[in-house]
Sequence to fold (121 residues):
Amino acid sequence: MKIYTCSKENGKNVEKYQSHLATYVKMIQTNEASTIGYMYIDGEGTVGHHPAPIAQLFIVVEGEGWVTGENQKRIPIRRGEAALWEKGEWHTSGSEEGMTAIVIQSEELHPETFMERKKHA
Fold:
């Protein structure tokens, strides 16, 4: 599992269309078909340990929680951060207080092209 930050500092100012005080952080570009969905995990909720059917990018947009990779070690994750699981990688996610995420699934995901990888233990 890899953890990324979607920080504003990594974005670009939007200057077209008379925009003002707007920043765009590009996260993913795919050439393959992709699905994009919302995941709501309520307080004390979990998505059980399972293998990713295809690469998955889990982008937290509200709240905070935790994610695991193959080793099942819980890594804290919060709004503005994202976890990437490769196809076949076993993983889990959950939250004590509640968390909402956008989930992008595709045969081809390479967020390292656009986002900064976060250092974690």
